[in-house]
Specification:
The structure is a single chain. This protein is mainly alpha-helical. 44% of the residues lie in helices and 7% in strands. The protein has three domains: 16-53, no CATH class; 77-168, Orthogonal Bundle (DNA polymerase, domain 1), CATH 1.10.150.130; 185-373, Intergrase catalytic core (hpI Integrase, Chain A), CATH 1.10.443. The protein has a three-stranded antiparallel sheet with strand order 1-2-3, covered by helices on one side. The chain has a three-stranded antiparallel sheet with strand order 4-5-6, with no helix packed on it. Helix 2 crosses helix 5 (138-157) and helix 7 (199-210) runs antiparallel to helix 9 (262-282). The longest helix has 21 residues, at 262-282. The chain is elongated. The protein starts with 15 loop residues before the first strand and ends in a 9-residue tail after the last helix. The relative contact order is 0.08.
Length: 391
């Protein structure tokens, strides 16, 4: 008489089992961890379309268990990003938070939000980044991937995922970014002549004639603008603050004191007098700690407010494409004008607050004169060609 079919052996504590679940139409992998003190069986499970997929997921699950990590099977990318936006941006300035939230919402959550964080794979992220590279510049791609990496890193620290899969992918090259340009000398003169007496006229004069960054102009206070100085000292502006986190300048060398041309001194004196008179009319106090380019009530102007006023000034100056320019390009124009005037790049770098001339050359290469050719031009003047007519 044949023996009855052997009954499947029940998996022992810590052993794996893989079986077909007809109701789910998937292979189920499970590992037995015994029972809780209350008598409930502990048997974490994974699933896959094939037995191989289930086995690989089961292997990953066991690694997590051995490492003491208990990941969530339902925790999504959207939840991870939301948690990071809530807890990971402390101390950031408002503009940075707005940028991060916008990129997170429109790119990370919109594309990957529903994906289970535990199931996210490097191949899928590579494909996602390749698609994003068709619509985003490289700098934006870097920020988008940074948001995902930081969100997963926070989830990893809290035991919600075993590894940060976003660290396994590389950033492809994105769309070319918007190229900065500079005003010609004639355009710069037109801009300096437009809307005299207004705060935006003074803003343009300071940016174009001294070359400080937009984030350094907006928080500038009168206490850092030295218009009335002792004999032998030039009027100057102390570039010591920016709108960056904790008010720090971009780099150590960005903290600098710059002499002002006489034209700018005259413009700023007029602005200070007009601002003091306006405060008096409004019944508000004025002090050296007020913003140079603040609102009538003394608040710091936003970047968007400056941009709108700057474009209005360019329209009055006769620019047909005023909306194609940004206040940031006043700085590139400053570099261009100095370079065209023959100022050495070492001097331009120091005035611009760059740590090295390499930064100046890399960032403003289109605005700089081709100084490498100057040696050859000088030698042609010193040693005229022996083949010149009449020789």
């Amino acid at each position: 008489m044949p023996n009855p079919p052997a009954q499947p052996r029940k998996a022992g504590n810590g052993e794996d089992s893989i079986y077909w679940d007809k109701s789910k139409n998937r292979f189920i992998g499970a590992v037995s961890l015994g029972y809780t003190p209350s008598g409930k069986r502990q048997r974490p499970k994974v699933s896959g379309k094939t037995k191989t997929e289930a086995r690989l997921k089961l292997k990953a699950l066991k690694k997590e268990l051995e490492a003491g990590v208990k990941t969530s099977a339902t925790y999504t990318v959207e939840q991870a990003v939301s948690d990071w936006l809530k807890n990971g941006l402390k101390g950031r300035d408002a503009a940075s938070i707005t940028t991060y939230r916008s990129l997170a919402t429109h790119h990370v959550v919109a594309d990957l939000g529903k994906a289970k964080l535990r199931d996210l794979e490097a191949d899928a992220l590579d494909h996602w980044l390749e698609e994003k590279s068709k619509v985003l510049a490289t700098s934006s791609l870097q920020m988008v991937l940074s948001i995902l990496r930081r969100s997963i890193a926070q989830a990893e620290r809290r035991g919600r995922v075993f590894r940060n899969v976003a660290e396994l992918v590389e950033i492809p090259e994105g769309k070319p970014g918007r190229q900065s340009k500079s005003l010609t000398l004639l355009q710069a003169k037109a801009a300096l002549s437009a809307m005299p007496g207004s705060w935006i006229h003074a803003y343009v004069a300071l940016s174009l004639l001294v070359g400080i960054r937009t984030e350094e102009v907006r928080p500038l206070m009168w206490s850092h603008v030295k218009l009335d100085v002792p004999d032998g000292t030039l009027p100057h502006v102390e570039v010591w603050r920016s709108v960056r986190r904790q008010g720090e300048t971009k780099t150590r060398k960005s903290r600098r004191t710059l002499a002002m041309p006489q034209q700018l001194v005259t413009v700023l004196r007029s602005l200070r007098e007009a601002q003091q008179a306006q405060r008096e009319r409004l019944g508000l106090a004025w002090s050296d700690e007020d913003f140079v380019f603040g609102t009538d009530s003394g608040q710091q102007r936003t970047g968007s407010a400056v941009r709108r006023a700057f474009r209005a000034l360019l329209k009055e100056a006769g620019f047909d494409d005023a909306n194609a320019w940004t206040p940031r390009e006043l700085r590139t124009s400053f570099v261009s004008v100095l370079s065209d005037h023959g100022i050495p790049i070492e001097v331009i770098a120091r005035v611009a607050g760059h740590s090295t001339t390499e930064v100046t050359e890399r960032v403003y290469r289109k605005q700089l004169r081709p100084v490498i050719t100057q040696g050859a031009e000088a030698m042609d003047e010193i040693f005229p060609s022996a083949e010149e007519p009449g020789e």
